[in-house]
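Duplicate of #3305? Posting structure anyway:
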């Protein structure tokens, strides 16, 4: 409990460069219910021992204090019995020690206020860093005591992650304003919640420790970010006018694709062909391909480029298993595709099988909806029950002609047994989703997209290397040949998967590491 003259932490307003964090009491109503459930789960994990700051709480040395009290009583008894100069000196010395180590930490603390400042809060992204400043203001100097500051940072979006602790200690001397600065590296996307700041005050002999918990509630949002070095080419929302050599649609059963010269020489000038649908103009039919026995195919012109982009995000726990960093990578790619498509003036719709987020619509030019969609992607969780591929055909059947669908999923089984749980691999003829249902909807959805004139881009995340990703990509292209579906393997580097948040004292240089 705090004394009557102690002041609970204060916070100010948020600025652009140096932001004083204050409690946000005006959250959107759509996040209220899901946010309460996430925070409740985080608190349960912290109570079970995840909070390392609580586990390392400093305590007074009670046995040493008992010994000191016994010596003080003995000196008082000796002075009463004999009353000599030695007994008086011994009693005075023990009394001074007792007052310094037992009474001063409680009497000299006075009023204490704390303030937390986060630098460049709006630029926090997955894999980046965060600079935090903690100011401690004292009402009176503490020359004969030490002062410790500790706090923890919990990720409410990923409650199973451990709390990131920060602890430091100093001798304030006669200073009344103390500033502590530290950096958190390896951020992961989600909502970061700062726990109450714990102030510990003790004597220089370490016999008495007084601990105060000052409430300085605040939270920040870390935006999703794809793995470093990824550049999309040839996809909706990518750099316009640029197409990668290996990002080509499978146009026929034999895997043949149109060459650049053929695209220029044909009437449509389009980079793709699709299966003929009754009602297509006859001048768009590829008669040469039909003469070669490849069936009736319709060339897609530039006028048929999609004006709407639909992003499908796999958010099922079964698909990812324990490799949740693959899910973070897919969320980052969805955010990048959203931003690029919005910059090109296209409307975007995000669909996922998460329990909290189902459908997010961003109309062309609506910047407020864009920011809201990015915030939702930062908070989304992989807690879906049903696999996204089970609903692929139904989603494609509702899309208008000319729409582009970017499907972000995981393309291989992890080492944690996610094959049995229902992850996706090319052998979907022999795969089941755990209850015996074959995953034929993957191929059926791709074929239905070609029939309805919907451009389907299948982006599969892999935890292995580039060679494995390319091999899996070729296998998927063979399986989906003849559907006009784009297939691309997206490897997730080991550096991205092994990214974990860590707090370092002193900013960009860890003081403890430099001293050792």
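Output from current build:
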């Amino acid at each position: 409990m705090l004394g009557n003259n102690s002041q609970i932490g204060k916070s100010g307003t948020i600025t652009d460069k140096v932001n004083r964090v204050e409690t946000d009491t005006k959250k959107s109503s759509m996040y209220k219910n899901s946010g309460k459930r996430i925070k409740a789960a985080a608190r349960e994990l912290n109570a079970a021992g995840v909070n390392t700051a609580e586990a390392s709480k400093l305590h007074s040395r009670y046995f040493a204090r008992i010994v000191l009290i016994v010596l003080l009583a003995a000196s008082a008894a000796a002075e009463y019995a004999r009353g000599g100069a030695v007994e008086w000196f011994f009693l005075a010395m023990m009394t001074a020690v007792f007052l310094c180590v037992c009474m001063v930490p409680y009497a000299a603390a006075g009023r204490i206020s704390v303030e937390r400042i986060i630098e460049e809060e709006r630029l926090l992204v997955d894999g980046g860093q965060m600079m935090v400043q903690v100011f401690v203001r004292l009402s009176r100097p503490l020359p004969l005591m030490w002062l410790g500051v500790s706090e923890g940072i919990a990720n409410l979006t990923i409650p199973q992650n451990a709390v990131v602790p920060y602890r430091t200690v100093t001798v304030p001397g006669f200073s009344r304003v103390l500033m502590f600065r530290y950096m958190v590296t390896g951020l992961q996307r989600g909502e970061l919640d700062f726990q109450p700041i714990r102030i510990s005050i003790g004597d220089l002999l370490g016999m008495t420790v007084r601990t105060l918990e000052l409430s300085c509630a605040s939270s920040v949002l870390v935006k999703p970010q794809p793995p470093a070095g990824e550049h999309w080419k040839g996809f909706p929302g990518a750099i316009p006018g640029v197409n990668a050599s290996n990002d080509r649609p499978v146009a026929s059963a034999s895997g043949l694709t149109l060459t650049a010269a053929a695209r220029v020489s044909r009437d449509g000038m389009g980079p793709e062909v699709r299966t003929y649908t009754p009602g297509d103009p006859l001048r768009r039919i590829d008669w040469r391909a039909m003469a070669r026995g490849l069936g009736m195919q319709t060339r897609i012109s530039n006028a048929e480029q999609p004006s709407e982009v639909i992003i499908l995000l796999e958010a099922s726990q079964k698909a990812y298993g324990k490799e949740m960093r693959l899910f973070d990578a897919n969320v980052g790619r969805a955010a990048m595709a959203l931003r690029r498509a919005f910059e090109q003036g296209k409307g975007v719709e995000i669909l996922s099988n998460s329990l909290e987020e189902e459908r997010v619509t961003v109309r062309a030019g609506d910047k407020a909806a864009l920011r809201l969609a990015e915030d939702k992607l930062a908070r989304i969780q992989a807690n879906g029950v049903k696999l996204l591929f089970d609903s692929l055909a139904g989603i494609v059947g509702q899309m208008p002609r000319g729409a582009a669908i970017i499907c972000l999923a995981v393309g291989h089984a992890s080492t944690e047994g996610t094959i049995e749980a229902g992850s996706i691999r090319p052998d979907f003829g022999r795969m089941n989703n755990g209850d015996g249902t074959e995953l034929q909807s993957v191929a059926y959805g791709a074929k239905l997209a070609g029939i309805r004139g919907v451009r389907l881009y299948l982006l599969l995340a892999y935890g292995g290397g580039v060679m494995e990703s390319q091999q899996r990509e070729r296998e998927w292209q063979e399986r989906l040949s003849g559907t006009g579906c784009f297939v691309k393997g997206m490897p997730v580097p080991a550096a991205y998967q092994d990214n974990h948040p860590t707090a370092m004292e002193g900013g960009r240089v860890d003081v403890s590491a430099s001293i050792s």
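Confirmed duplicate; merging threads. The chain has two domains: 1-23+32-223, 260-497. Residues 1-23+32-223 form a domain with the Immunoglobulin-like fold (CATH 2.60.40.150).
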